[in-house]
Amino acid sequence: MKRLHLIALAVLLTTTVHQAAAGDTPINTLTEAEKAAGWRLLFDGQTFSGWHNFKKEGVRPGWQVKEGALVCADPHNAGDIVTPDKFDWFELQLDYNISEGGNSGIMFHVTNEGNAVWATGPEFQLEDNVKAADHIRCGWLYALYQPPVDAKTGKILDATKPVGEWNHVRLVISPEKCVHEINGVKYFEYVLGSDDFNARVAKSKFSTMPLFAKATSGFIALQGDHGSVSFRNIKLRPITAK
Predict the structure, then answer these.
(1) Which of 136, 164, 193, 207 has its CA 20 to 30 A from that of 22?
(2) Nearest 10 degrees: CA dihedral of 137, 236, 241, 212?
(3) Which pLDDT band, with edges at 50, 70 and 90, does 14 fall under?
(4) pLDDT value of residue 23
(5) What is the pLDDT of residues 156-175, one digit of tens each?
(6) Model pTM above 0.85
(7) Which of these, 216, 222, 238, 233, lies nearest to 42 by C-alpha position?
(8) What domains appear along the chain, each with residue ranges and CATH number?
(9) Facing residues of 69 across strands?
(10) pLDDT above 90 (res 232)
């Protein structure tokens, strides 16, 4: 009987730790309010259901599911993974935990017409801002938009937490405006296909990619070839265009 009590206590403590890590709500679940608002989970916390490698079936072994997280454990044998469904306008929220020197990203409006996910889909950059080699920092729209200078530090705004800690991303993609946030801090907004957006694309490496940012609907992709990174609480709410 004493042993059974100890086992029950261990289960309770494990559950409590998982809940505390994501607030009062267990990870990879939706509250009743979120369900009523139209949110859907893109990762169940237990399987690869809902994901596959870009233009391939299944998920390569470099991706693993560990302790309720979708983990790029071996970027040399992972590759980019995408959702099976296409999304046009939406709000995406997720938590990520980057490795030291790690580099990853979230792409949207990805289509199969490109040879790689970044040939069609703009990228919300994820990385270790301290030791990653890429000068495009976390939360930026890769090669196109970056946050303003933070008046408190005199440096470009950076709301990321240290390596090993979970960070929260909020990405809103709509015809009226797109918004990037990290840990509740708004970085910037932009309008897809606007004169300003197109001018920035024309000055970037994407100017040689005729399909880049042209689709108004596509897959969501998670980059898995530049370093180890973990994801959890991946959820999406469709937005109706005005």
Answers:
(1) 136
(2) 40
(3) very low
(4) 53
(5) 999 999 999 999 999 999 99
(6) yes
(7) 233
(8) 25-238 (2.60.120.560)
(9) 66
(10) yes
Reduced to 3 states (helix: H, G, I; strand: E, B; else coil), residue 181 is strand
Phi, psi angle pair for 178, to nearest 5°: -115, 140
Here the tokens at position 35 are: 């369900």
For the beta carbon of residue 168, count every other beta carbon within 10 angstroms: 17
Q: Round the average pLDDT of the chain to a whole number and report it.
A: 91
Per the listing, tokens 């004169």 go with: 195
- Number of helices (H) and strands (E), helices first, in the chain? 3, 15
Using CA atoms, how far residue 222 sits from 27, 36, 133, 208, in Å, is 19, 27, 19, 23
Cβ-proximal residues to 110 (8 Å cutoff; 6+ apart), any chain: 54, 82, 117, 120, 121, 218, 219, 220, 221
Tokens of 97: 């935990």
Confidence of residue 13 (pLDDT cuts 50, 70, 90): very low
A 10 A CB-CB count for 169 gives 21
| Residue in this structure with the two tokens 């890429």, named with its chain if needed | 134
